[in-house]
Amino acid sequence: MKVLLARYQVKPGHREQVEQSLARMAALVARDEPGCRLYQVLRSLESDDELVLYEHYEDEAALEAHRRTEHFQEIVEGEILPLLERRDREMLELVLG
């Protein structure tokens, strides 16, 4: 199981817009990506403009398939990235759970 942890530092005033885009993204992932076992978006309690994405994929192939989807390209690359000050990603491997 591959786990992606992504931290989005959203430009001030754009958090709600990014959250709406991520809600659309989550619905498409659930509908079209059987290799994605979990797709969660969390908001920091310490910083109003920080969001964390927590995603579980069956394997590396499922993660790569996710990145190649039309909805990833349109929503994440096209809509969300321009509204971020920073995006940090970390790949993890599930050990227990």
Explain this structure.
By secondary structure, this protein is an alpha+beta fold. It has one domain: Alpha-Beta Plaits (2-Layer Sandwich), CATH 3.30.70.100. It has a 4-stranded antiparallel beta sheet with strand order 2-3-1-4. The protein is globular. It contains 3 helices and 4 strands, in the order E-H-E-E-H-H-E.
Compact summary:
The protein is an alpha+beta fold. Helices cover 39% and strands 36% of the residues.
Note the topology.
Blueprint: E1 2-10, H1 15-32, E2 36-43, E3 50-57, H2 60-68, H3 70-80, E4 84-93
Antiparallel strand pairs: 1-3, 1-4, 2-3
Helix pairs in contact: 1-3
Q: Which geometry do the CA atoms define? A: globular
H/E series? EHEEHHE
First CA to last CA: what distance?
Answer: 10 Å
Order of neighbouring strands in the sheet with most strands: 2-3-1-4
Overall number of strands: 4
Instruction: Report on the biggest sheet.
Output: 4 strands, antiparallel
Strand-pairing-aware structural class: alpha+beta
Question: What is the second-level CATH architecture?
Answer: 2-Layer Sandwich
CATH class: Alpha Beta
- Rg over C-alpha atoms, rounded to the nearest angstrom: 13 Å
Question: Helical proportion?
Answer: 25-40%
**Count of alpha and pi helical runs:** 3
- The CATH topology annotation reads as Alpha-Beta Plaits
Beta content comes to 35-45%
Q: What are the low-pLDDT stretches, counting only 5+ consecutive residues below 50?
A: none
How many domain units? 1
**Average pLDDT reading:** 97
